[in-house]
From TrEMBL:
Gene3D superfamilies: YaeB-like (2.40.30.70). It comes from Tripterygium wilfordii. This is TsaA-like domain-containing protein. Keywords: S-adenosyl-L-methionine. Belongs to the tRNA methyltransferase O family. The keyword S-adenosyl-L-methionine applies. PROSITE patterns: TSAA_2. SUPFAM superfamilies: YaeB-like. Residues 15-166 form the TsaA-like domain. InterPro entries: TrmO-like_N, YaeB-like, YaeB-like_sf, YaeB_N_sf.
Length: 314
């Protein structure tokens, strides 16, 4: 019988069969975790392409998938979990039994009652819209995956057995207004700046025009992508005036202990006004502010300097 470590290695080897989100193979608009939709289909314009390695997976294996509107994607939480500690017996590390839940304002819930990426077996399941199948490539939308996510398998979505009409969920799951913002607006010069950036990124993106990118930005920022700890800070009282949104909000929400959270809250009650957030999206650095009433103003956009070499082209 295989050990746990050997079984995990076998699972990871499957990532070579259906190639992971890699350069010119599987691309998505998010190169980092923050800002990636927390659940599938929340941002309909969130595009991705999944390219199969034809030397491992025959093109014929995709025949018929284009007749389905949606598909399931089985993948690995490769960035959000301390995989080495969980699977290395020398660390003797245990997974967190409870995690912080954004909809509970940071309140804790048992990990198996949540969709947290911090799980004893870090496997994720999501659904996406099938836009097209082109040879060995699948074009998808409504995705909630980070660029580079190892994909294990895909399966067609079957409404007659995958949708449970009488399903019920806890009340806290239904509190959508906890994560929505009041409004999203753009500064006077934003569209012009976005058009200038588009000239540089035109052949390196999954989006067809600056207008479509503008709609994507609005869809992403229509949800409050900040972590629980950021939302709980008194507005306009941060240590620094800039916050790089490439930090992982899921890690901050789900994996910090209460002592760290309390300490961070006290530290935040220092001094600074006018907090500016930065969202890295499609190779762009987008700066925005959000006031205490949940009104977002998107101020500027520049070409991001944090694009990994492997992701310069989509």
């Amino acid at each position: 019988m295989k050990s746990a470590e050997e079984s995990y290695a076998s699972v990871c080897s499957l990532c070579n069969i259906i190639d992971s989100v890699r350069t010119l193979e599987f691309s998505t608009y998010h190169l980092c975790r923050n800002g990636t939709p927390r659940q599938p289909l929340l941002v309909p314009l969130a595009k991705a392409s999944l390219v199969f390695d034809p030397s491992r997976v025959p093109v014929a294996s995709l025949e018929g998938l284009e007749e389905y509107s949606h598909c399931w994607i089985l993948y690995v939480f490769h960035l959000n979990t301390d995989l080495d500690k969980l699977w290395n017996p020398h660390f003797n590390s245990k997974f967190k039994a409870k995690v912080r839940v954004p909809r509970l304002k940071g309140g804790r819930m048992g990990v198996f009652a949540t969709r947290s990426p911090h799980r004893p077996c870090p496997i994720g399941l999501t659904v996406a819209k099938v836009e097209a199948v082109q040879g060995n490539k699948i074009l998808l939308s409504g995705v909630d995956l980070v660029d580079g996510t190892p994909v294990l398998d895909i399966k067609p979505y079957l409404p007659y057995c995958d949708s449970v009409q009488e399903a019920t969920v806890p009340k806290w799951v239904m509190v959508d207004n906890m994560l929505t913002v009041t409004s999203v607006s753009f500064s006077d010069g934003f569209s012009s700046a976005l058009s200038d950036c588009w000239q540089t990124r035109e052949n390196k993106t999954l989006y067809e025009s600056p207008d479509e990118l503008l709609s994507l930005i609005k869809q992403v920022l229509s949800w409050d992508i900040r972590s629980v700890s950021q939302r709980n800070r008194p507005h306009g009282s941060l240590v620094t005036g800039n916050y790089e949104a490439s930090q992982n909000s899921l890690d901050l929400d789900d994996y910090q202990d209460e002592e760290a959270s309390d300490s961070e809250t006290e530290q935040a009650r220092s001094s600074c006004k006018d907090l500016v957030y930065h969202l890295n999206l499609e190779g762009l650095d987008i700066s925005y502010r959000i006031d205490s009433n949940g009104n977002v103003v998107v101020e500027d956009v520049t070409i991001s300097s944090n694009i990994p070499n492997g992701n310069q082209n989509h």
